[in-house]
Design brief:
By secondary structure, the protein is mostly beta strands. It is built from no helices and seven strands.
């Protein structure tokens, strides 16, 4: 009997689907699907491109996940109504980074 072990090759994670929905509370939920495990962070920018907030990185498995943004800026103040750009940053085990950007209107 001969057993040969080979290193597992990591896959690049792709965001295969992503949607954002505004909440009555003023925040947002972002639902997305990953094709492989990855570290995922959510960055929120206003329409002028200035960073408003960032949801910290989390290790995620392949599959569907939901992330919540409270609707508050990094300083804790409530973000005003308007158009926002949400960027999901995914870092795969193999070091590949993929981004998915959504535009959403908050009321």
């Amino acid at each position: 009997l001969r057993i040969t072990a080979q290193p597992r090759q990591a896959q690049a994670a792709l965001v295969t689907a992503a949607t954002a929905q505004a909440l009555r509370s003023g925040g947002l939920t972002v639902t997305y699907a990953l094709s492989a495990p990855a570290q995922v962070a959510l960055e929120v920018r206003n329409i002028a491109g200035r960073r408003i907030a960032q949801v910290p990185e989390e290790d995620q498995t392949a599959g569907t996940h939901t992330t919540l943004w409270s609707g508050r800026s990094a300083s804790g103040s409530k973000a005003p109504a308007g158009q926002y750009l949400l960027t999901l940053r995914c870092l795969s085990e193999d070091g590949t980074q993929t981004n998915r950007t959504l535009s959403v209107r908050m009321h």
